[in-house]
Amino acid sequence: MATLDIISPLPGVFYRRPSPESDVFVNEGDQVENTTVIGLIEVMKQFSDLTADAQGTLIRFCVDDSEPVEPGQVVAIIEIQE
Amino acid sequence: MNFSDHRLLIANRGEIAVRIIHAAQALGIRTLAVCSEADKLSLPATLADEVMVIGPARADQSYLKAELILEAAKQMNATAIHPGYGFLSENADFAQAVVDAGLIFVGPDAHTIRQMGDKACARTTAQAAGIPVVPGSDGEIDSLEGAIAAAQTVGFPLLIKASAGGGGRGIRIARDANELAKEFIIAQSEAKAAFGSGAVYLERFIEKARHIEVQILGDGEHSIHLYERECSLQRRRQKVFEEAPSPALSSTIREQLCQKAAKLAQALHYKGAGTLEFLYDDTSEAFFFIEMNTRIQVEHPVTEAITGVDLVQWMIKVALGESLSIQQDDITINGSAIEMRINAENPAKGFFPSPGRLTHLQWPVGEGIRIDTHLFDGYLIPPYYDSLLAKVIIHGQTRQQAFERAITALNETQIEGVLTTMPLHKALLQDPAIKTADFDTGTLEVWLPENLHKLIEKEKDDALTTH
């Protein structure tokens, strides 16, 4: 099975939830579409959606919720449906 | 007074931390910086006499954590804490905790912060001091029925505001009763989520108004005003370009407004620097109190430029027990000053943040130029905090001279490696409406999409964007 890395294009903080009290956008093992939001990246108090940009199963997050990310860092791995 | 026994901890970062360090060092006070892991190599951490890392990069685990700051204060033998702006500066519990720890809080007491920080309570206090307020609900509203009833006297369009909100956050607009029914519920739950309190109040929305604010300074017994600032040029309710004095006020209205502000400061027995914010309607020459900030403000340097009073030094001096030796009659307006906020944002791309490493930095020099900044050549601007990089403050004998000097100053300024809001300021300085001060708080939101083509930076810099 082929996999694809979801890369953070920005430096900032990665969030898996829309707000601290909310459920996570997606869980490991969930099916995702191109447009599925898998998390938010906060840069200087502004939030950007991070989308899957691929269709398949999100098999693993490589960054924990509320942790800093660097541009180019792998945030999650998707198993692509053939 | 001799302050050399004092050790001032600065519970902030960025340009304001630098500003406070400079003010304290000039008074012979030892300066103690606290910083996050991400700010270890920052300018305030370098300039302060002593520095301590208190937590990780995220502000909620460092600069916003009162217990970490108090612990650092204890370990560093601080005698006083200056909170700057933002972070814990208007947190009454923090101010009280500082005092309970046996230290001096540079600012008003916890009671005043609480009283004036609560928007509904501030309104009542202002009214009691004879200051006109925007027509609004009588205190907080806790039900939709109550909101509909209050809207009858407040009138539409109106704003639903979170009592605990601020900085333009926690505000929704309703233009009629239907919108009120919808927005009120959202406003309540948003206020609860954002500020931990669902308390909201209603206020008439004055569509074409200027934002004018009066600087006050007190020692707890006597207080003065230092005239006004005009901060109407805002984007998403964040100030972008400020000036002092306001080009819109007649001297009669100016005196009325500022005297009322000073009277309120006196009634509060205000200690420290504070700001009373007003909406001003050009046509009717009416002003309405909206809220008070019980801290130093970002745009304080324009007031310092026209009055010659060092506000940050005075806040420290009165906190440490010195009496305010300046009288109201000593305060006069000398010329005109403007402040341009240089943010790490790309104005051509919706003001998207642009953190990163500075590859080249050059500030302008010349008459009437002041730069408040924490930047240095090679500095890595972290993505975790506010995007404010620098304030370019320009003083002239006239407003026109300040504008002319500002154009020269910005043309001489070079900030490379990140994108900034400099192109916005260059365009504003050349705009006929801005030059003639023909604007209100809604102007910039309309101006921006129309003038977007003027905000594209040269291609060399554009290539550096990561998106």
TrEMBL record, chain A:
Pathway: Lipid metabolism; fatty acid biosynthesis. Keywords: Biotin, Fatty acid biosynthesis, Fatty acid metabolism, Lipid biosynthesis, Lipid metabolism. GO terms for biological process: fatty acid biosynthetic process. Residues 6-78 form the Lipoyl-binding domain. One of its GO terms (cellular component) is acetyl-CoA carboxylase complex. Coiled coil: none annotated. The keyword Transmembrane does not apply. GO terms for molecular function: acetyl-CoA carboxylase activity. SUPFAM superfamilies: Single hybrid motif. It comes from the Bacteria. This protein is a component of the acetyl coenzyme A carboxylase complex; first, biotin carboxylase catalyzes the carboxylation of the carrier protein and then the transcarboxylase transfers the carboxyl group to form malonyl-CoA. This is Biotin carboxyl carrier protein of acetyl-CoA carboxylase. It comes from Marinomonas spartinae.
Automatic annotation (TrEMBL), chain B:
Pathway: Lipid metabolism; malonyl-CoA biosynthesis; malonyl-CoA from acetyl-CoA: step 1/1. It catalyses: N(6)-biotinyl-L-lysyl-[protein] + hydrogencarbonate + ATP = N(6)-carboxybiotinyl-L-lysyl-[protein] + ADP + phosphate + H(+). This protein is a component of the acetyl coenzyme A carboxylase complex; first, biotin carboxylase catalyzes the carboxylation of the carrier protein and then the transcarboxylase transfers the carboxyl group to form malonyl-CoA. InterPro entries: ACC_Biotin_Carboxylase, ATP-grasp, BC-like_N, Biotin_carboxylation_dom, Biotin_COase_C, CPAse_ATP-bd, PreATP-grasp_dom_sf, Rudment_hybrid_motif. Its EC number is 6.3.4.14. Keywords: ATP-binding, Biotin, Ligase, Nucleotide-binding. Residues 123-320 form the ATP-grasp domain. Acetyl-CoA carboxylase is a heterohexamer of biotin carboxyl carrier protein, biotin carboxylase and the two subunits of carboxyl transferase in a 2:2 complex. Gene3D superfamilies: ATP-grasp fold, B domain. Residues 4-449 form the Biotin carboxylation domain. It holds the Pfam family Biotin_carb_C. GO terms for molecular function: ATP binding; biotin carboxylase activity; metal ion binding. This is Biotin carboxylase.
